[in-house]
Specification:
Layout lengths: L6 H4 L10 H20 L20 H16 L5 E4 L2 E4 H19 L1
């Protein structure tokens, strides 16, 4: 949905937790990136230094979310147990439920 929105629609102000539809996409990108990194670094003895997701132009957000969703799909293949989150270790299922809940909320905001 983000990939097909016009610049005007992506930049339209929203009422709620994010300012624009593009910012909703940025929120989802950040959640996807953290989940992916937490899974990839699950075997690390300490919480990783979290990477910062680059802030791209509004029209690039859809591609960024798509790439990160693909990365998460690859990271979860064969993954299990506990993974890192910014708050510490958590079960993989809980992390994926949080990602899904964020995706649902963003979908609602984009409608």
């Amino acid at each position: 949905m983000l990939r097909t929105m016009s610049a005007g629609k992506l930049g339209t102000p929203l009422s709620g937790p994010v300012e624009t539809r593009a910012d909703a996409g940025r929120l989802l990108a950040a959640v996807l990136a953290r989940a992916c990194q937490g899974i990839e670094d699950a075997d690390a003895p300490e919480c990783p230094a979290w990477r910062v997701v680059p802030r791209l132009a509004d029209l690039a957000i859809g591609d960024q979310v798509s790439v990160l969703a693909n990365d998460l799909s690859r990271a979860t293949a064969g993954a299990s147990g506990e993974v890192w989150t910014p708050e510490g270790r958590a079960p993989l299922g809980d992390v994926l439920r949080d990602v899904a809940a964020t995706a649902d909320e963003v979908r609602r905001l984009l409608a």
